[in-house]
Amino acid sequence: MDAGLLREMKLSPIELGQAVLHGYQLRIGNKATLIASPGAKSYGMLIELDDGELSDLYSGPGVSDYRPETVETKRVDDGTVQSALCYNLPDDKLGTEFNSEYAKNLSSLLIRLGFPPSYASEINQPDV
Fold this sequence. Notes:
Layout: H1 3-8, E1 14-28, E2 32-48, H2 51-57, E3 67-75, E4 81-88, H3 100-112, H4 117-123
Antiparallel strand pairs: 1-2, 1-3, 3-4
């Protein structure tokens, strides 16, 4: 999630830094989610929102199917392990069609945020 986008939505995100999540792969269908995948890793931002903001954010149209899952991330800057709440879709809600426009926009965002270009390139490809 992009803190700038959250601010545009009138939320008050606190950016905690970049993180890597081992054992999960980003899957993009009609929507995007992280799925358990041994050996995989995904990158993202650790962002703090209060409980009311999280509830508001994930109750809206198009995102109400996402469910919270506690994961253990590793901060990129210092390697600190940190628990985080990650909202993911149930398997049956992902859809099968690759949303190339979403993947392209997310890939560009990851590059702007300084994540590895190889990861940004990887998510821009449909699963084979």
